[in-house]
Amino acid sequence: MDTVFLLIGDRVESAVRVQSILSQNGDIIRTRLGINREIGRKDMEASGFVFLELCADESRVDSLVKELNSLERVRAEHLRIELP
Hints:
By secondary structure, the protein is α+β, with helices and mostly antiparallel strands. It contains 2 helices and 4 strands, in the order βαββαβ.
């Protein structure tokens, strides 16, 4: 199973760009779960966390992670986990 963990800083600014990349790769996203800190008047740098379960070959996953990591204040990590 291929998973990507995504941390988004300054979510107000970054969310649109991240969403665009995820939409372009929607055909390989099996599961998507997002957890966001509430945005208040004083918290304009709210962060968010996204978990993705992917169904793609490794080169496609690596390309997605590389594109996400090219964004400022965004960090993506790929984890492949399998049962023995």
